[in-house]
Specification:
With 157 residues, the chain is α/β, with parallel strands linked by helices. It is built from five helices and six strands. The protein has a four-stranded parallel sheet with strand order 2-1-3-4. A two-stranded antiparallel ribbon has the order 5-6.
Length: 157
C-alpha cells in the first residue's frame, strides 16, 4: 500500500495533525508526501505498489487553487486558471491510473451541502472540488459516501 498525503504543514496545529495521522497509519504502508503533481510523482516511482490511497483530493484541489491565487491574485481569471490547474492534476492522476492498472483509492470531502461560502475564494473552491469529485466518481468503479462513520454505497460497477 502506498499512502499519498497531500497535506502541507504550514503551521504548528497542522504539523500536529499530520504527525498524528502518521502515527495512526500501519507501519507497513509506504508514504509519499506531495502537495501537487501527484500523477507525475507516481509515474516517477516506476513500480508503485498495487494499491495507492490518495488522501486527499480536497487538499490537492485546495493546493492548486491557493497556488494560482498566490501567483495571480484573486482578481479576474483566477477561476479559469485554477480550473486548468485542477484539470491538469486530475488528468495526470487518471492517466497514471489507466497507464499502470494500479488500484487507486481516492479520499475526498463533500463541501457542497453546507452554506454558500461568504468569500469568493471559498465559493471557487467549493465549485472546483465539486467538479473534481464528480470527475473522479464518474471514472470510478465504486463510490462510497461516509456519513457518521457509516458507508453509503453510491456506485458499484
Amino acid at each position: 500500500m502506498l499512502y499519498v498525503a497531500t497535506a502541507e504543514a504550514a503551521d504548528d496545529e497542522m504539523r500536529r495533525r499530520i504527525e498524528e495521522h502518521r502515527r495512526r497509519r500501519p507501519p507497513a504502508w509506504e508514504t509519499l508526501e506531495v502537495r501537487r503533481g501527484v500523477g507525475s510523482r507516481l509515474w516517477a516511482l516506476g513500480g508503485a505498489p498495487p494499491v495507492v490511497l490518495l488522501d486527499c483530493l480536497s487538499l490537492l484541489v485546495s493546493n492548486a487553487l491557493l497556488d494560482e491565487a498566490a501567483r495571480r491574485g484573486e482578481g479576474p481569471g483566477l477561476e479559469d486558471a485554477a480550473a486548468r490547474a485542477v484539470e491538469q492534476e486530475l488528468s495526470d492522476l487518471l492517466d497514471w491510473h489507466e497507464g499502470t492498472g494500479r488500484h487507486l483509492v481516492v479520499v475526498s470531502n463533500e463541501v457542497g451541502w453546507g452554506v454558500v461560502p461568504p468569500s469568493r475564494l471559498g465559493r471557487i473552491y467549493r465549485d472546483l472540488l465539486g467538479s473534481a469529485n464528480q470527475r473522479i466518481a464518474a471514472r470510478a468503479r465504486r463510490a462510497v459516501l461516509m456519513v457518521a462513520g457509516l458507508p453509503l454505497e453510491l456506485k458499484r460497477t
